[in-house]
Design a protein that fits this description.
Number of strands: 10
Radius of gyration: 17 Å
Helix content: 25-40%
CATH architecture: 3-Layer(aba) Sandwich
Number of domains: 1
CATH topology: Rossmann fold
Structural class: alpha/beta
CATH class: Alpha Beta
Largest sheet: 7 strands, mixed
Order of helices and strands: HEHEHEEEEHEHHEHEE
Strand content: 25-35%
Strand order of the largest sheet: 3-2-1-7-8-10-9
Length: about 240
Amino acid sequence: MKNLLRSIIRRHENKIMDNNSFRTKITKYLNSNVEYLNLIDVGANRGRFYDDLIAIYTKSKIQALLIEPIPECIKLLEHKFHDSNLVTICSKAVSDTAETKEFYIYDFDETSSLLKIKENVKELVNINSRPERIIKLTTDCLDKIVENYESKGEIFDILKIDVQGSEDKVLLGAIKTLKKTKYIWIEVSFNALYEGTCLFSDIHKILGETNFILLEIADGHRSPANELLQANCLYKNTCII
């Protein structure tokens, strides 16, 4: 019970820190007085990232494509944004191919992924590494999803990606979308916590090859020994002024 309590407290502290970090990092580059913002959120979960944007960009109309595979989260998003004409919700898991895959859902659903959490990893002592359940779903690449999305603008201001270890697959299936994206806010891993996970070096290489530069790194999740395991990075497309 003590481990569970510490884990809940740490999650709450990380959420506050993530929100403050995003506010500090993004407003350096994206003016808070813009009239319109266009967001794609891959791994939207309960829509907290969109809520953060609304809290920061209070004068802006924010159109958003929220992409999320967990059925319970989709229901919550549909209820939360049922009366909004700015939000489109897509029930999909995003990868670099369209195929049927297993998706691992954990009791702390923000850790759910197409990848399985490694067992007996000392850094995850406070996390239950056994999935609550496994579902089968069809993945799709982001470029295909965006083709069917009726955006009010041709350029996406922010692409946020948080898919617990398969961020590289999202990027590899989003080559067309990346060309139309100004900024990317992406979670990166410095330690392999999932089976087959990508690491920061993989993400940095892909984005470097698609004309993105790294602007900021926001402190993220740490191990009980204070080792930095994950962080959020802000990248900018150098081909879009």
